[in-house]
């Protein structure tokens, strides 16, 4: 394993040596291998790629060309429209409700676009906003998907998981479905249920054995409850609409979620890049495919090397797991009282002794697509060659404002 890491470092240094840092790369061999392994874990059910974890049109197109991958889960309506208009896909599910009036006008002004994009809803008031933008008589039918909350509520006020949607029970899902199907100018076509407390929580956090056991116990109780409740919700919704799809899961639960008979498709995205947070999963760990390099600029003391920049912190709870991971050379760590810095980052360890100004340290981002918010392009590394590919940021697309 160490030999492989040394060889990878040398190859990345050779291939990108003509570029100034920071430089971000995707190892295409690892990316394709992860896509293949995710497809196998889905056991024949189609995988919808989560664009927020990729944020590069070239790579979205690449994975969608593979058998078993179909459609995109976008994170905003403007992004969904852009992906359809640019030819990446003709099947986009927007993962979150949209209140972007300009985007709603664009969607409802084009019948082909309206047929390609599905909006997420969890309350009738979200339909009111669409009607305020364009009346039902003046638009094609808007496709809708109900967001069923997947969180586990074992007793009383106890709540495990994200507070994503007010629709939690099968009764609530059926009631909302009846309301949606009674509204002119809308068509209910899907139901989504994302089990964040299962797919998005690693069950083997390094150095935290007790927490790992607690997470595994929680997940072993929560998933059976979810399967039963999701099946009931699907039955309740199908009393009012002929659903085209039932979506569930994420990279961390592709295998388990695809085994749920109520689910017709699963979602994955982070597993293509293999970010550091997935090192804490027991069931499956993707091959690291995404890296970024920073240059050593000084050596303030023995066994300390300082790189320029490095404060690329991932979203979520403010804790160590959200820091990037110094990966190559092996054996580097952050200084506990400085962490990843805005302008400079000191790195400690025996490996620092061999580094000199101008050398590179390769990092892995804690999460997947957020890496692309720091660079305008990714270097797609294929063996001993690299090709630049624009990120959303590089294309001037700021879909989160």
Q: What report would you give on this structure?
A:
- The longest helix is centred in the middle third of the chain and has 30 residues, at 209-238.
- The protein starts with a helix and ends in an 11-residue tail after the last strand.
- The protein is 31% helix and 22% strand.
- It has twelve helices and 17 strands.
- It has 401 residues and is of the alpha/beta class.
- A hairpin with a 2-residue loop joins β10 (290-301) and β11 (304-308).
- Strands 1, 10, 11, 12, 13, 14, 15, 16 and 17 form a nine-stranded mixed beta sheet that branches.
SSE order and pairing:
Elements: H1 2-16, E1 23-27, H2 28-41, E2 47-50, H3 57-64, E3 69-74, H4 77-85, E4 92-94, H5 101-108, H6 111-116, E5 117-121, H7 125-133, E6 142-147, H8 170-181, E7 186-193, H9 196-199, H10 209-238, E8 245-248, H11 254-258, E9 265-268, H12 270-273, E10 290-301, E11 304-308, E12 325-328, E13 333-334, E14 344-348, E15 360-364, E16 377-382, E17 385-390
Parallel strand pairs: 1-16, 2-3, 2-9, 3-4, 4-5, 5-6, 6-7, 7-8, 8-9
Antiparallel strand pairs: 1-10, 10-11, 10-15, 11-14, 12-15, 13-14, 16-17
